[in-house]
Design a protein that fits this description.
The protein is of the alpha/beta class. The chain has a single domain (2-147), classed as SPOUT methyltransferase, trefoil knot domain (Alpha/beta knot), CATH 3.40.1280.10. The protein contains five helices and five strands; from the N terminus they run βαβαβαβαβα. The chain has helices spanning 14-27, 47-61, 80-92, 110-113, 129-147; strands at residues 2-8, 32-38, 67-77, 97-102, 118-121.
Length: 154
Amino acid sequence: MKLTIVAVGRLKERFWKEAADEYLKRLGPYATVRVVEVADRDSGRDAARALAEEGADVVRAIPQGAHVIALEIGGRQLSSEQFSARVDALGLEGKSNIAFLVGGSVGIAAEALGCAHEKLSLGPMTLPHNLARIVLLEQIYRAFRISRGEPYHK
């Protein structure tokens, strides 16, 4: 399975980078996972324009033919087991190239959301985009462990 995480913004702090690297390392035996970071724009000058520019960058970064899942607070909430089953189902449907979209501090532009085949919520709380990326990586790792009946999930 090929997974791409298209994320607005860079992980600047060392602890975010280390957490992401740890989960990417753990995911190695299960899937090819690539993270594509697009620049977050300065929303202080013109928030609508900044969001549109980010959205255009996100759209360009989506791999050709990928099944796109946008992280969106209004998206569908799944338990870890349901998420694992959904990833498995996509693979069985021949959709083994999946792109997850993680917006920046002002969310995901409408243009990028329009590319999404489905929307997933990590919960009703708003999370900083750096944390959302780490939670997503952890849940992807957990999904593969659940799918294979391996110890980790409790």
